[in-house]
Amino acid sequence: MLSNNLKRIRKSKGLSQEELAIKLNIVRQTVSKWENGLSVPDSDMLITLADELDTSVSVLLGETVMEPMTDDLKAISEKLEVINLQLAKRNMFKVKTIRWILITLCAFIVLAFIALAVMQSFYLRWDYNNPEFAVAGTILHGFEFVFVRLAPLAFIASIIGIVITYKKR
């Protein structure tokens, strides 16, 4: 909600991300991250942001109630906590997805190596006078040649990626 409101209000004021960033003494990438929902401003910055955009924090956070709250900072911090939890869940989902893709890649590499070992380069015994067998055999040999040399590197990189995704943050 914050990201959409921030972008809408900034554009309605005719400000670019760069101009808003200069007013807030931050870099443009920070404004971009806020607008894309990748991070959220802290409570002090949220108040400054609302002041620069001539709006209230409630409007930025998507509330329809325009009445000032008695404990504004507490309400803001609670909302930011909810937003941060949502971002953390989204990031955790991405990490788990990447982890499972890497695990699947490792399994595929192991299965492919097993299949190649079982086949024992059977295509080398084909009659290469037949052009179709010659083409198919060459393709199989090329695949095996490249796979056997690159798959171990991909396997090691995947294992490292899996270990990194299991590290505590």
UniProtKB/TrEMBL annotation:
Any idea which UniProt keywords this protein has?
DNA-binding, Membrane, Transmembrane, Transmembrane helix
Q: Which Gene3D superfamilies match?
A: lambda repressor-like DNA-binding domains (1.10.260.40)
Domain HTH cro/C1-type stretches: 6-60
**Membrane-spanning intervals of the chain:** 100-126, 146-166
In the record, what terms sit under GO molecular function? DNA binding
Question: What is the recorded name of this protein?
Answer: HTH cro/C1-type domain-containing protein
